[in-house]
Design goal:
The protein is α+β, with helices and mostly antiparallel strands and about 300 residues long. Helix content is about 30%, strand content about 30%. The protein has seven helices and 17 strands.
């Protein structure tokens, strides 16, 4: 791989420490001369850089100096050059959010991870969610703290924290996940095709205002939010051989705490699973009744 790179970094101590090592191994050149970007920081910094520099049509190689670093690579002083020469690329199309606020002003932004619609005040949001040109109703009225529309790359971020499903990177799907739903209480969301155009409408702008957030770009007092995948924009991320984004997603899918949150039941098993639950409940109730009956008899014998 041609190692003509432009190095971008945040100003944390850990990033500056890695930067001092990098400068001994590779020279940072201007953006026009560079073949790719090296980004030193965490996931949040990478999201900002992707939005700012994607128009240069160059790949991004992230080095993690933050916490988890889902979009980043682990830095190895010893194997840095070797890892850089054996990278492979992954392409991601972002979401685009078009928002009309209560003053009928239109604003747009892209999102790599998710677009979140959140209540602005102390009262829950009342939302309607449709797809297509507004003809397909996903949910007529949702009362909740908000809703998330997540990409496969972002499905292990905020989406997973609100018990949303993890999507494979090549699934060509989007996850729509409610945040603390009140009505309907048991609605867990839906997975839709990535070609879907999603329309979220605030049903009570005056009493229950909402914010629309595309990663780290926020629009207050949103009235109508339109979301779709933007195929004109493509981010190319470079990963080390053994730490690809697909592998990180699969690791999250196999985590014990993740699997305990989501139990995927095939439709043909649904009836038998429900029946099994009824039997377990009945058995538990019967056991409790017998225990109470035996204790009652013992108390009678003791006092009478």
């Amino acid at each position: 791989m041609n190692t003509q790179a432009n190095i971008l970094f945040d100003k944390t101590k850990s990033s500056l420490k890695i930067l001092s090592i990098l400068r001994k191994k590779i020279k940072s050149v201007s953006i026009n001369k560079a073949n790719f970007f090296i980004v030193v920081g965490g996931d949040g910094f990478m999201l900002k850089i992707l939005k700012k520099f994607y128009k240069f049509n160059k790949p991004f190689y992230g080095i993690n100096s933050g916490n988890y670093g889902f979009l980043m690579n682990k830095f190895s002083r010893k194997n840095f050059t070797k890892n850089l020469n054996k990278t492979h690329s992954i392409s991601i199309n972002p979401l685009i959010m078009s928002v009309k606020n209560k003053n009928n002003q239109n604003k747009q932004s892209i999102a790599i991870n998710e677009i979140s619609v959140l209540r602005q005040g102390r009262q829950a949001a009342t939302l309607s969610i449709k797809s297509g040109n507004g003809k397909n109703i996903i949910i007529k009225k949702l009362i909740s703290d908000g809703i998330l529309v997540s990409t496969p790359a972002g499905s292990t971020a905020y989406n997973l924290s609100v018990h949303g499903p993890i999507l494979n990177l090549n699934s060509k799907r989007l996850a729509i996940t409610p945040i603390s739903p009140f009505r309907p209480r048991r609605w867990r969301g839906i997975i839709v095709n990535e070609r879907s155009k999603i329309i979220i409408k605030n049903l009570d702008c005056i009493k229950r205002p909402i914010n629309a957030v595309a990663d780290n770009f926020e629009v207050k007092n949103a009235k109508i939010i339109k979301i779709k995948v933007n195929r004109k924009i493509r981010f190319v991320l470079l990963y080390n051989k053994n730490t690809s984004l697909e592998k990180k997603i699969k690791i999250e899918q196999l985590r014990k705490e993740t699997r305990s949150n989501w139990v995927m039941v095939p439709p043909h098993e649904l009836e038998s699973r429900t029946y099994g639950l009824q039997i377990r409940c009945s058995t538990s109730w019967a056991t409790g009744a017998w225990t109470f009956f035996i204790l009652f008899i013992l108390l009678i014998n003791i006092f009478f």
